[in-house]
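S1.2 Input.
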Amino acid sequence: MSRDARWKALLDLLVERGRLDVEEAAADLAVSAATIRRDFDQLAEQQMLVRTRGGAVVHGVSYELPLRYKTARHASEKERIAKAVAELVAPGEAVGLTGGTTTTEVARALAVRSDLTSGTPALTVVTNALNIANELAVRPQFKIVLTGGVARPQSYELVGPLADGVLSQITVDVAVLGVVAFDVTHGAAAHDEAEAAINRLLCERAERVIVAADSSKLGQRAFARICSAQAVNTLVTDMAVGADMVRRFEEVGVEVVAV
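S1.3 Output.
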């Protein structure tokens, strides 16, 4: 296992459990305790965790794992969700993409669609996510509009008044939201209030709003609200979503697509 893969696995375990002992982590990853101690020390230097005697704990009560260290949790589900979302976008439309692992997969699904290989433009993509803009910028048939703003290292998203200024001057046909939580009562939410504010503005500038979220995020709530459930037109999720959850979303006017 490479160091990068090991760090990703360690951070995922830490987020899941809140605390890890050296011996426990070594057994889980099938490496030596000395390797884990060294990993914990190096991750602590990057302020990715708090070192304790014999182990490590996460920072604070609510912890947001940086995008670059997120593993492909629910990877197959996210790929199916992304493909289904991409199919809801028509050639020539303007689509807004927020940051996140699932929306990054949506960008990749759009990039390989055979009917989007040409056009003037084939698609206009508005995003505040640096990684998404970087991936799509090599597609000459796509018009890429990147908002200004200050980059958040956790998510590669641009936030702040500079991003507000761009989004307030445009409209999009569809906004695709990546969320950390989506609930009928509490709506769509993010960890960070600045990200939530940009995502909210993107929703307001869109003709229709799609939430792309695997079922583990449904019925959950997070710190910063993006929009109400009623502001969302379509939820694209995976087949593990419960029938009662589907019914509750449909009762407030959200079309649920499970793939």
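S1.4 Remarks. Residues 8 and 69 are 5 Å apart (CA to CA).
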